[in-house]
Amino acid sequence: MRKIISLLIITVMVVSTLSLLSPDVSAAAKVLYVSPAGDDGAEGTADAPLRTVSAAKEKLKALKGVLGGNERAYVFLREGRYPLSDTLVFTSEDLPNVTFASYPGEEAVICGSREISGFSEETVNGVRAFTKTLDPATDPADFKSLFRGGEQLPVPRYPEEGYFTVGATAPEDDLWTEENTPWSMTLGQRSFYAHKEDLAFDFTNPEDVQVRILHYWHDELMLLTSVDRASGKLSLSRPSSMLIRDIDRYYFENVFEKMNEPGEWYLNRKTNKLYYVPYPGENADELVLYASSLERLVEIDGADGIEFDRIRFTETDWTVPTPGGWLSDWRSEADIDALQAALDVRGVVEVKNAENVAIVNCEFINLGADGVKILGGVKHSRVESCFFRNIAATGVFVGGTNCLSGAPECTADITVKNNDISGYGRKFFCAIGIQVTFCDGAVIDHNEISDGYYTAISDGWVWGYGYQLTNNIKITDNLIYNIGQGWLSDMGGIYTLGVQPGTVLSGNVIHNVAADPGQGGYGGWGIYPDEGSSQITVEKNLVFACGSDSYHLHYGKDNVVRNNIFALSAESQVRVVSRFEGHKTADFTKNIILTDGKTPVFSYIGNSAAFNAQDNVLWDLSFGKKVYLLTDGDSKNAVSLSTARRKGLIGENVAADPMFADPLNFDFTIAEGSPALEIGFEPWDYSKAGVEAGAEIGLGRHSDTAYNSHCALQTMRGSKERFPLWNAFINRIAAMLKAMKTFIRSLAF
Predict the structure, then answer these.
(1) Which residues, other chains included, contact 10 with Cβ-Cβ below 8 Å and sequence gap of 6+?
(2) pLDDT of residue 95
C-alpha cells in the first residue's frame, strides 16, 4: 500500500510539473510560441509561431485583467537566436506573471549582436588580416564587442604581455584640488607621464586607445585625448578617481599597431573599417562575425511575476567611461563610491519596482555589463541555478536605496542560489561576483565563484556605524577560489561593510585570494569585515591559502567568530585592527588556526577586552606549539603565545596539533581524538560548499567542482620574506643547531 501511495504521489507531481512546462498546455492565448522562423503577424500557436519575444509580450497585453490572481501565462521560445536591436522593456502596462522559457529540449538565445560578413583579405602589421568597410545602413554601428562562434574576441593591447609603470604624476595644473574632492586619495589627475621609452610609436587614432591603470581597489579605464611622446605626457578623457602614483601599473588597449595575433580585431572609427586577424584555415569569404552595440537586453520596471527559465543571454556591448557618460563629473563622496566595485555599470537583465521575479536555469555569457542587476523596489525575487561566464562587470548585483525597512522603494527578500559564476570583472576589474548593497534580508547560498580580479561576495554599503538597511543576509555554503589574481588590492573572498544585525557567514570555503604583490599592493584576504562591520556571525567556514590573511577585521562591534578553520595564509591567519574604540570588537572562540613556518597566528592584537581570543586551537606545521603573534604588523614585535596570554592580549588558547588528515593537500578532515573536539569544535562537511551536487545549472549543465579546485600554496612560498628579521633569526638558530649536531656526531665517531 505504501508503494502504491508513493507511486500516486510521484505521478501527481510529474503531471503537475508537465502541466506547467509542457508546450501542450494549450489554454489558447495563455500559451504563446516564438520561433526565429516565425511571423509576428501570426497567431503565436505551435503551428504558427511569432518571430520575436517583443511581439509575444505585446500580444499578452490582451490578457491583462482577464487572467485572475496569480494565473500564469507562458511563452515558449523555439531553438535559435533572438537578436535585439533595442532593450526589451516590461512595465506595469504588461501582463504580469508570465514565464518566458526555452521550448523543452531546445536552447533559445537572446542576444544583442548582429551579423557581419563579406570580408576581404589583405596584409596588416605584417600578418594576414580580413577587413571590411562597414556600411552604416546594414552593419552594426559603433561597437566595442565582437564575437566569433560564441567566443568574445580581444582587442590588441600594448604591451602585449605584462604592463608598464607610471613614470611620474600629473603636473599641478592637471590635479583636482581639495575644494572639489572629498578625501586625499581622490585628488584625481587629468594626465600622467609615461617613461618616454615606453611610447615607442605613434598611436593610430589615439582618442580610441583605452588606458587601464591598476591601483588600490580600482582600475581606472579611460580614453586618451592626446599623447606627447617628447615629454611622455598622456592626457586623459576624465580625471582619475584616485591618485595615480609612480608605482602604479598600466597598459593600453585597442592599439592598432599591436594587432598581430589570431582573433584580435580593431575598428578604425574614422574610416569605419574593421580589421580581424584570422585563425589558420579561415577564409575571408566564409567568415561571419557578430558585433554588439547594445548593453541592456531586458529591463523589468513595475511588472510583477516575470520569469525567465532556461534562456541564454549573450553578446552585449560595454561602455568606456567618458565625459558626459555614466561615470563622469563626480563631486561628492557618494559619487566617488560609485566608482568602487563597478557600482554604476548597467545590468544586462535589470529589475526594479517589481515582485516575484525569477531568473532560473539561465545562462549569461559574453556580456558587457552586470549579468543581473536587482535594484530598488524589488521584493521576493530570485536568481537561481544560473551559469555566468565572461561577464564584463558583476555577476549578480542586489541593492536599492538605503531606506527604512518596509518602505516601497526598499529591496527585500532576495535569493541568489546555486549559481556558477566564473570570469567576472572582465572589463571592469573591480567588479564583484555577487554584490549586495542595501537589502532587507537576502540569501546568498551554494554559489560557486571563481576567476575574478576582485572580491567574490560583497555585502553592505555604509562605512562606519551609520544606519543601513542591509541586515539578515545569509551567506552560506559558497565556494570561492582564485580571485584577485594579483591585479588589485584591498579585497576579500567575502567582504562586509557596516552594521548588519542578523547577518551570518557560514559553511563557506574560500582559498587563493591574491592581491597586487607590488610595492603599492595589499590585502588579499579570505573573509574581510571592513570598516564598522558589526553584529555579524562567522562560523563553520574553511579559509586557506590566501595571499594575506585568512580573516581580516577592520574595526567593528559585537562580532562572533567561532568554529572556523583558518589555515596556511601567507601574512597571518587572523588580523583584527582598530580595536581602540572602547567596545568589544569580536569574540573569537573554538576556531582552529593552522600556520606553517612561523607565519603569525594573530596579528594586530591589542587586548582581550576588545578582542577576546579564547579556546582556540593553534598549531604550526613546522614548529608545532611554537606559534607566535604580532602586536602590530611588524615582525620585530612578535610575541609568543604565553607572553601574549600573560600580557592580557588574548585569552586562554590551546597549542596542539588539530590532527587534520592532510592539510598540505587541503584535506582538513579531523581525526578522532583531536584536541579541537575537546574544546567543543564541531566538524562539518565543507565539501558541500558550492553548487549543490547533481543540480542542473543553466541549460542542462552540471557542476561537480571539488571544494579545493585549483588549490595552490604558492602564496606561502614567499611568506617568510614578509618577516625577514624573524626568519633571519630562525635561519641562524637552525644553522647553529645543524653545526652543533654535526660536531656531536663527530665526537661520537
Answers:
(1) none
(2) 96
* Same domain, yes or no: 97 and 122: no
Same-domain pairing of 134 and 165: yes
Distance CA 549, CA 545 (A): 9
pLDDT 10s digits, 290-344: 999 899 999 999 999 999 999 999 999 998 764 433 333 333 444 444 457 788 8
Q: How many residues does the chain have?
A: 749
Query: Is the domain of 646 the same as that of 585?
Result: yes
- Taking residues 566-578, report their average pLDDT: 92
Asked if residue 146 and residue 100 are part of one domain, the reply reads no
- The pLDDT confidence band at residue 141, using thresholds 50, 70 and 90, is confident
Q: What mean pLDDT, rounded, does the chain reach?
A: 87
The DSSP element (H or E) to which 736 belongs, if any, is: helix 724-748
Q: What is the mean pLDDT of residues 159-183?
A: 77
Give CA separation, 549 vs 341, 528, 599, in Å: 21, 9, 10
Among candidate residues 370, 432, 446, the one with its CA nearest the CA of residue 703: 446
pTM, two decimal places:
0.90
Alpha helices by DSSP H, 22-66: 53-60
Q: What is the DSSP letter of 177?
A: P
Q: 435 by DSSP, 3-state: which?
A: strand
Q: 463 in a domain, yes or no?
A: no
What does the alpha-carbon distance between residue 9 and residue 13 come to, in Å, rounded to a whole number?
A: 6
User: Does 320 fall in a domain?
Assistant: no
**Chain segment 617-646, per-residue pLDDT in tens:** 999 999 999 999 998 878 888 999 999 999
Residue with cell string 590585502: 523
Tell me the three cell numbers of residue 664.
598540505
Residue of 343, 342, 362 lying closest to 298 (CA atoms): 362
Residue 607 and residue 613 in contact, taking contact as beta carbons nearer than 8 Å: no
Q: How far apart are CA 114 and CA 153, in angstroms?
A: 15
Same domain, 118 and 84: no
* Residue ending a domain, choose from 240, 262, 291: 291
In this structure, the number of other CB atoms found within 10 A of the CB of residue 103 comes to: 19
Residues 80 and 192 in one domain: no
Task: Say how many domains are in the chain.
Answer: 3
Which of 607 and 199 is assigned the larger pLDDT?
199
Of 110, 128, 148, which residue is a domain's last? 110
Q: pLDDT value at position 2?
A: 46
pLDDT of residue 112: 96
Distance CA 443, CA 327 (A): 30
Cis bond upstream, residue 159 (ω within 30): yes
Domain housing 154: 114-291
Cell 537576502: give the residue. Answer: 442
Residue closest to 264 by CA, chosen among 134, 128, 141: 128
Residues 257, 121 share a domain? yes
154, part of any domain: yes
Tell me the backbone φ, ψ of residue 657, rounded to 5 degrees. Answer: -70, 120
In a domain, 341, yes or no: no
Q: Clarify whether residues 565 and 638 are in a common domain.
A: yes
